[in-house]
Design brief:
The chain is of the alpha/beta class. The protein is built from 15 helices and nine strands. It has helices at 14-25, 44-56, 60-70, 114-118, 154-167, 180-191, 222-237, 242-248, 250-259, 261-274, 288-301, 304-320, 345-348, 367-370, 372-384, and strands at residues 6-7, 72-77, 80-87, 95-100, 131-136, 173-177, 197-202, 327-335, 352-359. Helix 8 crosses helix 12 (304-320) and helix 9 crosses helix 10 (261-274). It starts with 5 loop residues before the first strand and ends with a helix.
Amino acid sequence: MTGQIGPFEAHVPQAELDDLRERLARTRWIDEFPDRDWSYGTSRQYLQVLCAYWRDGFDWRACEARLNTFGQVAMDVDGQRIHAVHARSPEPGALPLLLVHGWPGSVFEFEKVIDPLRDPVRHGGRASDAFHVVCPSIPGYGFSGPTVGPGWNVRRISTAFALLMHGLGYQRYGAAGGDWGSHIVTDLVYSGSGAGVRGLYLTMPLGEPPEGTGDPEAGLTGTERQGLRDWAAHQAAGTVIHHPLNTTRPHTMAHAMNDSPAGLAAWMVDMFRSFSDCGGDVERSFTKDELLANVTTYWLTRTIASAARLYAEWATQKQTFPRPPRVEVPTGCAIYPRDVRRVPRSWAERRYAVTHWTEMPAGGHFPSLEQPELFVTDLRAFFRQLR
């Protein structure tokens, strides 16, 4: 059963913020060898500084105010709340855009790009490039969570997002995302529920190697080979250990992170550092406020466990559903040099009708936060041909 779409306003009880500060003040810090920095994982020295700022300087109310300024909605799908930022453009000819975040992100990934996308004239662009921007929280993540029961896999999520766009009155729209966002908007086309999707724009496209060849890297450029090696290096170094752990035992670490804000920050900030183009200095790519807006969203909504469960739901879906067909909807891909996984163009073309491919000069897994101008410029250029 699906209910009506209604307005949503972010405002957590003050008692939740007071509890967060008290827990941060009582953090029991780990021992750490001198001068080890990040070599064993998240640096205690850095984390202590970050958590002190979280406790005494970070302004969650300002984060809520920014979301509420954009405008938000919520709807019910099978008893599950689906939350979304809904930022309508002042331009009457704007193209609706479904913009989906990934792991370990939230709708705050897009706060730098929402205004330039919905009101390009005010940001030095052209009115013809305007979008009505819809940024949903993935069920189980942030304000769309926790999930109320099992079965919220990628197919169910993509179907819910199609219902959201229909409920908002959008029959024809573009869809974009990275990480889980890539999976979800791709599945939107696979499933048939996204019949109105005019084009896909992906910052981490799916892809597969050629079948029946002895060397899957045959014919690849040096840059493409490096992308595959970087993914292998992440696996070897354990920076993507969340993937198998969340797939098989998503609650094992979630108990600790749901109870300790410092533990949650340690886990998530390590991923932001490892997956971004920061050269080892996480604040070269993100401010403390940007990091903490994301971490605090998970903390206040108590969604670290339900977010992790999506990996297990996805594993079950892949065993159940047949191999999907190739996507014939025009697809644009932007490859950022420090993204955690970068597939070669030839691999992506086995899954998509690629009509636009950009090798970016900088940026990582969170391009709309790290390189918002590059992100906006390229997304506009891709959809310009589809309006």
